Amino acid sequence: MSFLRSDLPLDRDASGRFLPWIIGFMVYLAALTLAGAMAVDELVERWQAGLTGKLTVQVAPGPSDGDPDDRIDRVLELLAETPAVAGVELLGERDVARLLEPWLGSGPELADLPLPALIAVELRKGATVDLASLRQQLAEAAPGTTVDDHERWRSDLTTFARSVELLAGVILSLVGGAAILTVVFATRTGLSIHRRVIELVHLIGARDSYIAQQFEAHALRLGLVGGVLGVGLATATLLGLGRLLAGIEAPLLPSLSFELWQWLTLAMLPLAAAGIAMLTARLTVLRTLSRVM
Amino acid sequence: MGNASVVLFENAGVRYEGGPPVLQNISFALPPGSFHFLVGPSGAGKSSLLRLMYLALRPAEGRVSLFGRDVSTLKRHEIPELRRRIGVVFQDFRLLDHLSAMDNVALPLRVAGVRESEIRRHVPELLKWVGLGDHLTSLPATLSGGQQQRVAIARAVISRPSLLLADEPTGNVDDAIAVRLMYLFEELNKLGTTVVIATHNEGLVSRFNHRQLRLEHGVLRTADPKPRDVA
What we know:
The complex is a heterodimer of chains A (293) and B (231).
Chain A: H1 14-51, E1 54-59, H2 68-81, E2 85-90, H3 93-104, E3 117-123, H4 131-141, E4 146-148, H5 151-193, H6 195-203, H7 208-246, H8 260-267, H9 269-289
Antiparallel strand pairs in A: 1-3, 1-4, 2-3
Chain B: E1 7-15, E2 21-30, E3 35-39, H1 46-53, E4 61-66, E5 69-70, H2 79-83, E6 86-89, H3 101-111, H4 116-129, H5 145-157, E7 163-167, H6 175-190, E8 194-198, H7 202-207, E9 211-216, E10 219-223, H8 227-230
Parallel strand pairs in B: 3-8, 3-9, 6-7, 7-8
Antiparallel strand pairs in B: 1-2, 1-4, 4-5, 9-10
């Protein structure tokens, strides 16, 4: 039998008319979910990369009668002697004030506060540093000095990324499940509408697989149409959002500028939708027909 | 010898949904190559008897065997192969409205996986033979009742079935066409096809000298030959 020719008038079914739209909507949701997960993944990777190989040393102001510059110099000296350290940068008061501005405001009274000195440390590529030892040495050189290797922040980012991936997986499963149920419903309706024709084709000697093949081909066509529709709309949405984000100075936001493999992943969705629709239709037909003579 | 019968009924009965019996205690055998008229008044159970023979129904009691196989014990996957050996002309034709005359007649061949090139060769030939050579691409709705009936007959015989069952096959055609169709059935019969024709047309029955299965109120009054006769 030609895969394109149908003995059953499935194209005339009302149930088949809405199927591409529903599948299109499902694929649209799936594409946006997938794109969102990929964008968050890329964002987290970017954040992680920005923190890898870097430490932040915070030198507390110390006793009021001591010279704070002495403490900072001792810390800088110690860091410079540490083999794993590639470079250090002492943040100026203005930089520190800018970092604290969201919490403390920008008034002149900020200068009167005993703010800690912040030193950005860059480690040599591939070098490992004994953090416990470094912390101890720095604390001895200038009591109250702390070292932040951003481990907690990175751990939080990883947890966030995993949560987003999990959520995306759940949404994709729900969307897929809803699409499967829709195809099951439409196929059963089709079987019911064409009951007499199917009975005739059976009496002529058709196997269940022959009838299932016709429903499969129909579901494949509708799934492809719906899938292309959904991915087309999702692509337009993503391009629009990408253009919008490109005009915003916000490095913490995802870029939505995908690589080729990511676009190809999205382009596979119509095929996946069509495949799922086809398989669902086949199994539904075979299961339903197995109950009749 | 009973196993050699194309059709063998042994005390078979049918009832629908717990209602009264439609067929009771039916026993007969049809040897290969036989030709029978199935006659009886409306409501006598002719269509139910045919339904048993074309595997649309299983007997509620007794046993029905086709080509030596007890239909009650057939596995689901074995049924299509058996059905392909049976051609059926339905009383209401049961043509597929969205398919052309050509595609309707081709259906049994396509279902059986026959190559398209062969279909394109045989189907127009047969449609021409039944007088529909100019209607290959016509949809059933554009054909007269008689023309539809001939398409239905062509569909039933296109795969050269071993058993041909026809329910009032000449009901919508004039006498000349009816006789022509009967000759077609006889030609098939000569080639070895076992033929059963259910009809009200007493003229046709008397004109063609074939054996009769006469049903009355779901009971077989005349069965020739009976199982014991062919045993």
